[in-house]
Amino acid sequence: xxxxxxxxxxxxxxxxxxxxxxxxxxxxTPLTPKLDVSGFQRILxxxxxxxxxxxxDANLETARLLRSQLRTNSSLDVIAAEVIxxxxxxxxxxxxxxxxxxxxxAPEGATSNxxxxxxxxxxGDSEELSEEDLEAYEHIFSDASxxxxxxxxxQNPLIVTGTIHFAPxxxxxxxxxxxxxxxxxxxxxxxPVRTYQERRGFVxxxxxxxxxxxxxxxxxxxxxxEEILYDASRNTPALSSYFELMDRLLPSFLGTLSAxxxxxTRVLLR
Amino acid sequence: MVLxxxxxxxxxxxxxxxxxxxxxxxxxxxxxxxxxxxxxGLWREAIYRWxxxxxxxxxxxxxxxxxxxxxxxxxxxxxxxxxxxxxxDLEPNNLMIQQNYDLFREINDRVQSxx
Lengths: 270, 115
Prior knowledge:
heterodimer, A: 270 residues, alpha/beta, 6-stranded mixed beta sheet, 8 helices, flat, B: 115 residues, mainly alpha, 86% helix, 0% strand
């Protein structure tokens, strides 16, 4: 008995002395922003070329969401302005070729297309744009004079723009899930079971482009892709899925402009 | 003669060990002070103390480990990496240093991918 006590007390002593040899400490690791915004006082979330489902106005919703996030998470003044219909502006530009035309360009050469032509063809804004289609609109982001002009209008802010594609998505296949089973004695067990499941959801692919309003030059481009899938029987509104997906990539968007800190713990040693 | 040599070597070894022990205890005092101030949020002072500790006794893994943490806290990722790696060179089997280093690398990789 006394031997046991002695061993226990020695063990405790060793444990105590070992414990004092390290100290857990919270650490806030700072991450510097990807973009130096010290030269800007204002930020304009101009608008986006949006494609995909019509259930959500991705241009308007994205501009609204980013503006509200920037108001609380950035030191820049967020300009409250009308959200620009960039898609229409890109289509008005002389060198614009609709995605459909680009695919079926005649051997004689490419022809430019105006919005009127598109209407005559029976193809217009009502048709959902795919991710590939959006590429035809990207020329607007390299139009420095357009952005410079916009910058002058709003006292040379940092401009946020880009493309957003938000569309329904389906994926079926084998998924692993847990199932309760009871044996002959009535004991409950949980076993993994692989079943075929049809799943539906949405995919969000935004490209954020940061433009210097003083020069019209692109400073930084960030591409993201997030998807969410639900059981096919579940009917989730497109807008709520949109916000769920945007929530995931907001930290990365905000980290472009303002410093982030990552909280963790480390062990200091003696 | 042989006896004298043995005595001399023994004496030298004892003196050297004494010097090492002194170095370690001086370094440990610096490390302890660094821990105390880091716990109060005074990270620059803590780093200064751990730097001194690592200068006094360059084989003191704890000092290098703590330096790694201090530099990491200040966002000095390159120096933090060097400090952690030095600590691991000295004590490759120390799981706490390894854990700190793994957590650091996770963040550092994120920083590198952002650049």
